[in-house]
Design a protein that fits this description.
The chain is mainly beta. It is built from one helix and seven strands. The strands form two sheets. A four-stranded antiparallel β-sheet has the order 1-2-7-6, with no helix packed on it. The chain has a three-stranded antiparallel β-sheet with strand order 3-4-5, with no helix packed on it. The longest helix has 10 residues.
Length: 159
């Protein structure tokens, strides 16, 4: 009796079609779930093609929306915030320190270059009162809500 013949022999990889990927069986149906999401009206952000993207927290309180962007090692002069067509954009650049020669580095893991984050603002944001504060590498943007968008307590009368 020959060893390994108790089970039917499996096809060798060379017998499979060229470019066949067993993980690809799930990839196409999975990707179809998310088709068109970037064109929906509630899509928050267009993803830019930049070298690095700062981490952001976005949360809402009763009075405002707050955007916190993590920008370690940057100076205020290298960070720009703009608003155009109801899209809030944070952009800037982290430059490589020229004081130390690149040849003297043993490892470079920090990301340098331009960055950009954009957020579509909801209609209830009062754009005239947007505030920005930069401290300890954290950019905090406060986006106040218009008065008509804030929750109101309605008194119920009994008759």
């Amino acid at each position: 009796m020959n060893r390994g013949t108790a089970m039917a022999p499996a096809k060798t990889f060379s017998a499979l079609p060229r470019g066949w990927d067993p993980l690809n069986l799930f990839e196409t149906p999975f990707n179809r779930l998310f088709e068109g999401w970037n064109t929906l009206p509630f899509a928050e952000e267009a993803f830019p093609l930049t070298r690095w993207t700062p981490a952001c927290d976005v949360y809402e309180t009763e009075k405002e929306i707050v955007v916190k962007a993590e920008l370690p090692g940057l100076k205020k002069e290298n960070v720009y915030v703009s608003l155009e067509n109801n899209v809030l954009t944070i952009h800037g650049e982290r430059k490589f320190e020229e004081e130390t020669k690149k040849e003297n580095y043993h490892r470079v893991e920090l990301t340098y270059g331009q960055f950009m984050r954009s957020f579509t603002l909801p209609a209830f944001v009062d754009i005239a009162k947007i505030g920005a504060e930069f401290k300890d590498g954290i950019l905090m943007l406060t986006l106040p809500k218009r008065e008509e968008a804030k929750p109101k307590q309605i008194e119920v009368k009994i008759k």
